[in-house]
Amino acid sequence: MSPLEAAAILLAGVGAGTINTVVGSGTLITFPTLLALGVPPVTANMSNSLGLVPGGVAGAIGYRRELTGQRGRVLRLLVFSTAGGALGAVLLLVLPPGAFEAIVPVLILLGIVLVIVQPRLSRMVAERAERRAAAGVVPVERAWWVPPAVFATGLYGGYFGAAQGVLLMGVLGIGVAESLQRLNGVKNVLVAVVNGVAGLIFVVVAELGLLGTEAEVDWLLVLLIGTGAIAGGFLGAAVGRRLPPLVLRGVIVVVGLVAVAVLFVT
Q1: Which pTM does this prediction carry?
Q2: Do 201 and 89 meet the contact criterion of CB atoms below 8 Å apart?
Q3: pLDDT over threshold 80, residue 90
Q4: At how many degrees (to 10) do helices 3-22 and 219-238 cross?
Q5: Residue 159 and residue 195: Cα distance in Å, rounded?
Q6: Residue 158 DSSP label
Q7: Which of 58, 65, 89 is nearest to 189 (CA)?
Q8: Keywords, A to Z (predicted)?
């Protein structure tokens, strides 16, 4: 790996850490970068999931003020995120590599669509809360379908993860009676745990050669992405909310579309 390539991965980690903390979808920065540098898709996905864990932790720490008083809620939802993330990681390892390579463009496009519709989704959530408040409806703490939806989101995150944060914010924003900023803090914790659980499974299973998989974690990639993601996580928590969301979404969409184009060409 050349110094220029290492710098590109490090900067991608910074961008992903920042975007994950503020919006979600940082994988659409790091994953395409790794693909463009010739890293095999499954190895790129595994290394990326591990590398983004420190950034997720940094983002969660940065949002600790919004997490105050939500310990019980976070712990209850963590059970479902953990189970989903573990299952998604196992599916990535046991399914043929060709299956993942074939579905990657679809997953990236899905992530791009979710990023594009995220503002509309946020407005719908806010408008719904306002209507219920105006009607005098006492909000329930959590809708019954939130835990299984969090499980499904965790499964997706363990398998691929792009726009996992956007999905979670949609689920939490509609199903949990809480402000979006406080829910964003919950989202950061859940995403960090999903990536961490998936990463742990990748290390144990792939590195020990279990389940017959030949995929490997590239620890240099993990180090570069992780270092950048830590800086990005704190940056996102500190100043990311002041950045124009349109700019962040624009970067994600452009990078994602370039990645899809590269995949189709190659």
Answers
A1: 0.77
A2: yes
A3: yes
A4: 40
A5: 10
A6: H
A7: 58
A8: Cell membrane, Membrane, Transmembrane, Transmembrane helix, Transport
